[in-house]
């Protein structure tokens, strides 16, 4: 690894040592740099400490940056009248000014709960670190120059305040992100034995300890490495053992969650029974906890009444009702047929009135419809009830007719969330203003973040998908069900606010219809239990919050959610490997324990033992190919 070019910085470092720690002192230093990796991936914010063999109280520490790189300057001799503070102390951040990250060093003379807060010059809070309880000794934390929502702060002066044991101190720091990219990583120093008028270390041999800081990713299995001789500037790389690690930061909100659900399409399938309705929308043990019901807007208004029984019961249970048309009435179409064709241009007003009539009818029956789609899958050719729309036609309807529908409007509900159909809508100011929900399906494509929709402030909903309909031998096998856990996880990470399956009651759905060896009619299937790991515990109005997993190829993933009212935190973890694995989650929230529920090959949303959080870390073991939901107590 090439050595850093840093002569000017080395001079600054020497001056820094002298001014911060000593008066009338002289120091000699050796620079050590390198990289720390875990399974070839860089370890972020790992703590590396060089311990002198002749005097183990003489230690020099640093942290890796986001690329796993570190650099430490080892003081080999010093003359000083330096004495160790015996009280609570806050050191100057280092380096200062800084361009990428800075260490904030502090000393504790008694065990204390520690909090560090960053303020701008106007006294506004920029970032909070609830470090938790720490022992007596020297410590430090890293600040990467980002605020609580992950954005880089502006260049300028900032203040950092340390609170511990009923005491507090404040110091100033300078951020300049235009500084040299070669500024090394921040360091913290311990000089317990260098408190004499002169000191020359008796040995140039050091052991190396690699461990965890406040936010090391992934979590390192702490280890001490054998002796190394340090006589000249050198580069040393380390490979460490680790636990796959997730971090959860509730300060950084992502999308609002509207819910999870599925469709009940009467005429095409039998209506749901009262027992199936309770199973689908109840939130207790042995229930799915669905909070969204999707229904069909039939072309014939005489059939609308068939939607009412199930939709009304669901609404009374607090469920959100959305509706999609598969075709306008045949009389409004270019081919006078319910299959294919297009909506005639002179019938746009009539079609808007048709949709509005459905909304008004359902409301008169005690079923408010939250949102209506313009068209189900306007972009594919099929042999069943359908209608073709292109982007220009969809834009025209949204611009001129959407306000007449009488409720929120969803579009375009394309088959694969095709951007060529939705991007033009988002880029048309009036059509976009009249669009409430950007909706789409993910049949073979479209499952990805949508920055343009987020930029326009639109909620993104996944309103239909199914898998396993061609498996009529073992539709409820774990092999069929487990990928649904990964899919919902990916939908949430893509920034979508809703996940809606196809039929609720079907042999390949969450509740069995009794066909094709799918179980007894009305029973929850394996897919259903997987869905309930999200739908029972992540309720409408929750927000997804920031989560990160490292290494990213570890067959481990996590999404996290929080109720903004109660602050209840829900974490969903997925082990995609074929073996039992140990994991750790770092949590910024002050949570002491979680209730757990697991679905695996042998468990069906089964409640497990409470999981305890220690020092902001949750350690746990997961079964092969399993999903566990953690609900904060």
Automatic annotation (TrEMBL):
Keywords: Carbohydrate metabolism, Glycosidase, Hydrolase, Polysaccharide degradation, Signal, Xylan degradation. One of its GO terms (biological process) is xylan catabolic process. GO terms for molecular function: glucosylceramidase activity. One of its GO terms (cellular component) is membrane. Residues 110-165 form the FlgD/Vpr Ig-like domain. InterPro entries: FlgD/Vpr_Ig-like, GH, Glyco_hydro_30, Glyco_hydro_30_TIM-barrel, Glyco_hydro_b, Secre_tail. Pfam families: FlgD_ig, Glyco_hydro_30. Residues 310-381 form the Glycosyl hydrolase family 30 TIM-barrel domain. PANTHER family: GLUCOSYLCERAMIDASE, GLUCURONOXYLANASE XYNC. Belongs to the glycosyl hydrolase 30 family. This is Glucuronoarabinoxylan endo-1,4-beta-xylanase. It comes from Melioribacter roseus (strain DSM 23840 / JCM 17771 / VKM B-2668 / P3M-2).
